[in-house]
Every structure is written in C-alpha cells, then in structure tokens.
Design a protein that fits this description.
The protein has 2 domains: 31 residues; 82 residues, Glutaredoxin (3-Layer(aba) Sandwich), CATH 3.40.30.10. The chain contains 4 helices and 4 strands, in the order αβαβαββα. A hairpin with a 5-residue loop joins β3 and β4.
Length: 130
C-alpha cells in the first residue's frame, strides 16, 4: 500500500473508533442515574422507594404487585431516605436472602430487567403466597 493510502486508512479507523466511543457515551448518559443506596436498616428483600405524587411510582407498583414489597414513601421520613441515598423516586432495590443488594433500579424498569434482578436474588412469584 502507498503511504497516502495507509494514512487514509489510519485516519478512517480513528474516526470510526471516536464515533463508537461517542455513541456509547451518549447511550450511557441517557440511562437514569441509579443512586448508591444504603439499604441497611430497611426491612424486606424488595425495597420500593416512592412518593405519593409520583405517577411513575404507580406503574412500578403494578409491576411489583405479585411480590411482597416493602414500600418506603419519601414524604413519610425524608431524613431517613435522604440519609440512605434516595434522592429520586421511583427506586427499586432487590436483595438476596443474605440481605446483599443484587440490583438497584431507578425509574420504571422493563419487565426483563426486573425479572433478571429477581432471578439473581432467588425471588419467584411462588416465593410469596398471595
């Protein structure tokens, strides 16, 4: 290959790489920020942090209906929830039997994402008689 062709090939490769990096950064920026939440001191394997005036919270509540959920409303104890790192709602925290956090979801989760977190925690609908 001639020197100009090699340069063109290198410049093209760098341009494509830069476009890919920028594209992935853009996708990551669009995801809702999931806060680090200190779940110690909260009861339950599925923690749902909500607020009465949150329409998205109603959607998440319907998704969680088949499960035993510990719901914590921000306006009931803002100092406790703020201290735990809850700065937006809705947030779902899923813990395994040992109490370790296996997933934190901000916003309305997809059914697939919610199911994956439940599986990692060993939670099934049959785990909770309703």
């Amino acid at each position: 290959m001639s020197e100009p062709a090699v340069r063109l090939f290198v410049v093209g490769g760098v341009t494509v790489l830069a476009a890919l990096v920028a594209g992935f950064a853009h996708l990551r920026a669009r995801r809702p920020r999931v806060p680090e939440i200190d779940a110690a001191g909260f009861e339950g394997r599925i923690l749902f942090f909500t607020e009465r005036s949150c329409p998205s919270c109603d959607t998440v509540r319907r998704l969680l209906a088949p499960f035993e959920v510990a719901e914590y409303r921000y306006e009931d104890d803002p100092e406790r929830l703020s201290g735990a790192g809850v700065d937006a709602v809705p947030v779902v925290v899923i813990r395994d039997e040992a109490g370790l956090v296996v997933d934190r979801i901000a916003g309305v989760p997809s059914i697939r994402r919610l199911a994956a977190g439940m599986r990692r925690a060993g939670i099934t609908k049959s785990s909770y008689p309703r």
